[in-house]
Amino acid sequence: MPAAVPLNGGAAVPQRFLQGLTRCDAGSGPAVLGLAVSGGGDSMALLHLAVAAGLPCRAVTVDHGLRAESAAEAAGVARACAALAVPHDTLRWQGWDGRGNLQDQARRARYALIAEWALAHGIAAVALGHNRDDVAETLLLRLARGAGVDGLAAMAARRRHQGVNWLRPLLEIGRGELRDWLAGRGVVWVDDPSNDNARFDRVRLRQAAGTLAALGLTTERLAEVAGHLAQVRAALEVQTRDAARKYARIEAGDVVIDPAALHDLPEEIARRLLASALIRVSSAEYGPRGPALAAALAKLRAGRPATLLGCRMLLRPEGLRVLREWQAVRDHVTTADALWDGRWRVYGPEINGLELRALGAAGLARCPDWRATGVPRASLLASVSAWRGAELLAAPLAGFGLGWRAEIAPAPDGDFLCALSH
Fold this sequence. Notes:
GO terms for molecular function: ATP binding; tRNA(Ile)-lysidine synthase activity. Its EC number is 6.3.4.19. Its main location: cytoplasm. By secondary structure, the protein is of the alpha+beta class. It folds into three domains: 15-222, Rossmann fold; 252-324, no CATH class; 327-408, no CATH class. Helices cover 42% and strands 17% of the residues. Helix 5 crosses helix 8 (201-207). It starts with 14 loop residues before the first helix and ends in a 14-residue tail after the last strand.
């Protein structure tokens, strides 16, 4: 990849291209902005626009090692960044074992690697090159899969995940506009061969873009609709927050919901409230799929328990209790100074050399006062406990272990259930 031409030559920078980046600067302050740059046209435009906006930035490229050309492409990005005096790092992923969904695993690995990189360099925000075409294509792809409002809504311009703020400053700009601007400046980018592989749904959508546009489904119109749905999603989230304050509370890490919520709330709000509870208790990245959640709601409304996302949902005298399923955590072991099951921290007189595990039936049998805690047995089986080998030292939620306590760590993305009373 040839080095980019100097910014004082070539095509001028349209002011509206910089508006999203200017908002990024206002949101993340004067600190260094991370840039995820693959070498493709979208991310190369992001790199050059960030420099044109005068933002202090540092770029990162993830080499997935899945194509023979990937290392050379990452090196090309490094040279382009050097020509712009932008520090650059290359991260390598070697986690593909040939099984599962390659694209999904690569995406998850990419975010995880970049988040780790950003935190290591003190970078609070990382900008991505998603643009208006990505919004339109995602809407169509998810529409074909029968997605609900959340799936159809435009991707967020700002999202917090894995301790990092992910920014998308180019969502209002078309892919063609960005590439025309790069070409006017003499900037060369790399086209991934997979972008021409018709076995991918997204590629087939791009190939059908002309036909869709003739029907009025232009990229601009599709992105506009996705934006409307994003506003609907935001309104639904406000209603769900209000419902959570009225109907839900947290007890010993479980979410307890007034059963009336399942009948009094509109279907969509009840579904969102239950999904939020499941995500909070399981520490899952995403909620359950729509059909599975609808089936669970139907069971609960019929007075029957349900299991979903590694959680049990039980109708008890105190309400609908969403608790961790013991089978989901029975083999989860961490050191005593680590976060257990994505949300629990344990504090006590000694932690060196100890392990955190699920209490289980054998552990609960060693806690003579567990009934006095008022916490249901099913919840305690999956609760955190500290062990030295086969010796149980503490099970704070079961009332065992003088001087020990267990606390829920703040959710990394600040979900609204954190604000509920404990």
